[in-house]
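Need tokens for this chain, all 200 residues.
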Amino acid sequence: MQNFPGHLSGMAFARQVEQRLAEAKIEPSVAPLDHHRKAAVLVPLLEMEDGWHLLFIRRSSEVQDHKGQVAFPGGAVEPQDEDPIATALRESQEEVGLDPKTVRILGLMPARNTITHYHITPVVAVISWPFGIHMQASEVSRVFTIPLQWLAVPEHHSLREVIRPNGAREPVYFFDEYDGELLWGITAAITLEFMDLMKT
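Here are the structure tokens for all 200 residues:
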């Protein structure tokens, strides 16, 4: 992926992301399907010495859905949540100890339905780094980051056919393994949509 602006430092990059999210001509959110529960995830951008990264978690083996899978912090909407942003911030604080006051929301990406019956809204934000990570052990087994410049390399991901338990065949995105972690499925699709949004 050429001309990816991940080299920009500080708030210059954040402002560019915010602008792209506001102006993007991307597909609108799909409506939630019957029996799909509304949810939100935080797509957390952070700046390190080698550039901008995305923060991910690995779900524990104790959670109901997506056991052991790489994901963004997030979860189902609760009655007290005013909107998807509130859900993403609450879940991120519960799962990894991220203080909502240190988060700068940049915008929303289109919501999408998942095969696990969720209707997920991605919330893109810049987070402070480092921060005091406090993992909710029952839900999260690891917190790690992946550089945007690595995610931007086309050769690092592919589209594969997966056979679901019901026999249905479905194309699914997979990234190459990074630091022992495999990014795939809905989280990989959201990541790629964000990366495409930032192409120049």
